[in-house]
Amino acid sequence: MIPLSRFCSVLLLAAAAAPLGAQSVGPPGVGNTGPAEPPSVFTPPGFGGGQYTPPPDTEYPGDDSGGDGGGSVGPGSNAGAQGGAKRALRGSSARGGAGAPSSLVSGGRGGIGDNLGATTVMIQNDDWARWWETNKFEFISLRRSYDAPLDQQGLRVETAEAREIRMADVRRLIREKVIPVCRSLAASDDAAVRGAAIVALGKLRDAEGVDLARKLLTDENYDVRRSAMLALGLVDSGRASYMLLNLIDSSDVGKHLLGTESTLSIEDRGTALVTAALRGDRRAEAVVLELLEQREGMNDELLSTVADAAGLMGSVRSIQPLMDLAFDRKRPEYVRSAAATALGRIGDPTVTPALVKLAASNNDLEPKRAATLALGIVAYPGSTRVIEHLAGMLETESDASARHFAAIALGRIGGEQAKQVLTASFQDHAADMRPWLALGLGLAARPSQDDEIPALLIDRMAREPNSDTLGALAVALGLTRSERGVSVLGALVLDSSVRSVAGYAALGLGMSGQAAAAPILQGVVKRSTNPVVLRNAALGLGILGDRSSVPALVDLIRTTNNPFVASMASIGIAFMGDEDAIGPLMQLVEREGPRGVTTTYAVAAMGQLFDVDRRPALSRLAADDNYFTRSTAVRNLLALGF
Asked: pLDDT tens digits for 280-318?
């Protein structure tokens, strides 16, 4: 689970976006008093646009806005004609201008999105744990309620008829119990609870939740507004898509949705863009492609977010403009880095030579880092040239973070050649590289459950003096799914005097997938008094997926005095996909009331429990990117923690 708190140790480099071009107040020749700009998908047909037609369900129940909210729009109408005005899909100044504040303080950001200039985030401190937290759900397969039940004896036998009866009960439970509770909590006076509840409704694909999300777009709390956009991106609804596209376009409808008459900030538009792309909304694909093609003169911050969206969409049609952008030295490095990341996420191996060229550059630090990570996605075990290049980076690359990412990329590629490179480097390399090489080895061993790599990691663990490196070794050993590793990790959980090491060992036990890990973690949950270990043990049990552990986690929720421990136990239950866990979660909400950390996590767990996706909502947005240079829109969405 990505923490709900904001990432620390960051330096915000604010650069307010200046207006770029005059505003178009209508399509060319239709009452347009200013210079014409390139048409957008909202431009009416006949004027070079018109690719987007509002869905039939664009009407908003209870909307008394006089039609500006979309009530007058029906099939065949065009959103760009509403009110006779539109905003072209080009860079625009964020409200607040050059003096806009750029410091984002967690818990005190109500309204800050209205004043935020274009920013990029530079992380000062790099460590393996940061990469792991960003990417871990790439390697963890969570169970869903529609999966066959799992216990210590393995999968239970479930006939098709029995499964359908069970799933009918699950659907009724969601409809009659879960959704009403989440709708009620969406009106809580606790902003964190409101945000968690509206995202849960998005995960539950609640149609009425679209209207609740629309109302929360004007919430006084910044994070709640972002949560509402995320919820709209999760639910499969034409109306939700319509709203997000209008926010992207800063149209009259978009301004009305955010309760303003001003042009929407780049951060608002970028947030809407990536949330629409997160689900792979094909209605937004035309917007993304058009923005890439018309990028000349576009604000850099917005363009960086467009590249993020293109990668999430996975459209091969965006490859060429992304390649052009990645090599465009007129653009800042963070924009080019986003383009390189997007090329990796699309996953087409034809981009490999371009990524190798970027990774070999001595002058483009951030694109180099992004391209190095991207190579781990697009290359394959037979990519000798790529593996040799990454091996060379381990030895000669001057940038430490690029070296670290090369180890990860080799692990992602896997195969015998990559394993040999990682093994040789692991046995004879500088201390700063050891945690990253360990993770690379764990990733390389995971698909095949290699026996040699676990032995190598266990040997190193027995003599590793550095606790931080020992934590990485524990995670890496869990990634290997080694049966032998269970006893080693179990001993580390019980014996380590360093809380973080014991916590990572508990997580490693969960990732091992070994049935023998469940009793160890259950014992930890019953006996440990260490909050760090308890939280990770609860998550480990959730990842392990053994439903026989639910009683132990429920008991932990009932007995602990630490709200964060109770919260992580709730999430652990949700990760198992056990529909029977909804009772304890609802009891937790009833006991705690509509406020507080525990209720926030409990309602988040309700959404996760019945989510049809196997990964938490934002994990795709976080994975495989160069986290040194994230756009503000992406960073602020990730900080929500869903």
From this structure: 777 788 889 999 998 998 999 999 999 999 999 998 999
Phi, psi of 151 (to 5 degrees): -135, -170
Residue-wise pLDDT tens digits, 186-195:
999 999 999 9
Cβ atoms of 579 and 168 within 8 Å: the answer is no
DSSP 80-142: GGGGG----SS--PPTTGGG------TT--TTGGGT---EEEEE----HHHHHHHHGGGS---
Structure tokens at 432: 């700063």
Please give the Cα distance from 416 to 427 (Å, whole number): 17
Task: Tell me the sheet residues that pair with 119.
Answer: 14
Could you tell me the pTM of the whole model?
0.79
Cβ-proximal residues to 189 (8 Å cutoff; 6+ apart), any chain: 594, 595
Rounded to 10 degrees, what is the CA torsion of 641, 102, 251, 281?
A: -30
Contact 573, 609 (CB under 8 A): yes
Considering only CA atoms, which of 337, 281, 285, 347 is closest in space to residue 310? 285
Tell me the pLDDT tens digit for each residue of 107-117: 332 222 222 22
Asked whether the predicted pLDDT for residue 588 surpasses 60, the reply is yes
Under the phi-then-psi rule, with left for phi > 0, alpha for psi from -120 to 50, and beta for the rest, what region is 501?
A: alpha
Give the integer Cα–Cα distance in Å for 434 and 229: 40
Reading phi first (left if > 0) and then psi (alpha if -120 to 50, else beta), residue 513 is in left
Q: Residue 151 belongs to what H/E stretch? A: strand 150-151
Q: Decide: helix, strand or coil at residue 12.
A: strand
Q: How far apart are CA 38 and CA 293, in angstroms?
A: 11
**What is the distance between the alpha carbons of residues 16 and 102, in angstroms, rounded to a whole number?**
9
3-state secondary structure of 626: coil
